[in-house]
């Protein structure tokens, strides 16, 4: 930020302070800083940008939606569709980012609000196109570098004006969905345990929201927290898409790339999956089988270590703080450089090597340091990614399906065989990754 000190840290002991002392290291409130800018207005005031009691008020409504199990059948339709699309596209190298972004949007639409974006089946679907163009406008580098352009030029640039119109439409679409679900819930009454396990996130948030409207929300000391408005409920629904969509798709892309570069690990995962669910072409893991496949998380975790999707976690200091021999002034920006921390050879020997066994339960006995707070692709502490358990499970399920259905490799001459190309800041993704998929059941 211009005119402000900014510091990057990559030592676990300093990162720990940032993760744990949330009143000292606060979220940068870009919504209030740049109220006219399209980017922050997409999700508006939501838990992602709030601090203190407002933040805790948001969590009171959002937490119950995430404290649940995720039955595997919730994933079945979009997952099978993704596999079918990959098979259909497999005559030539597949543009992995394109299809995993679409597949992830379908999964999230389903899980967040039981909505079918039809991103895989019908890429021209209007809602999918509206969402994608909104995201593109939100991440536009020019408007992020010079946010005041949205103030001055919105009526000069037609495309940008169209994006603002899209934003209104998207907000109305989510508001309408909330209202329909709210009425349905009021008609149904209280949800039973099974209904809750099978509900989408939005229904569970509406249930908690209705409860807090009547009974209030309190912190652990019994203090009344600010109540969430209906607009904020809408914003929190949107933040799940914004925060979860690309991050999950990019995470999958990194993992596919690592397994193409490490075919022995890919085969290990395949053997493991077949040993648990068999080799029938249409096998889909039950919840018990998914639990048995927890070893696949070693691959997921190592991929997220080596290729942190989020490059850094940023905070602003509310008071001066001393880290080692440095005193950082109030108001400065402090960033945990997740990539640097997860590549520090003190914490992860041979950091550039893909070694899933680092995350085996026996790893500590075998000399891997496993220092707390050094693996933080979802951040840590009370502001750790609220979707982290869901994201890990999604990746486990996707990985299980992929190894079961395909063998994949990098095409001859792929630049990824020598030097993977990735974007460098914000969300990190492989650029232009193409893979050859060979169906195993043809
Ligand atoms: C591989 C996938 C994902 C990665 C790597 C990831 C990573 C992160 C990180 C590093 C943060 C902390 C950012 C910060 O403090 O500045 C975060 C926050 C957040 N993530 Fe994720 N995320 C993923 C998936 C998801 C999913 C699937 C959802 C929702 C369904 C989600 C929702 C959120 C939300 C709402 C926050 C803000 C939480 C708060 O401030 O309390 N994320 N994520």
UniProtKB/TrEMBL annotation:
Pfam (any one): p450
Xref: Gene3D superfamilies: Cytochrome P450
Positions bound to heme: 385
Superkingdom per UniProt: Eukaryota
Needed co-factor(s): heme
Protein name per Swiss-Prot or TrEMBL: Cytochrome P450
Gene Ontology MF term list: heme binding; iron ion binding; monooxygenase activity; oxidoreductase activity, acting on paired donors, with incorporation or reduction of molecular oxygen
Family from the record: Belongs to the cytochrome P450 family.
Keyword list, A-Z: Heme, Iron, Metal-binding, Monooxygenase, Oxidoreductase
Native species: Linderina pennispora
Keyword Oxidoreductase appears in the UniProt entry: yes
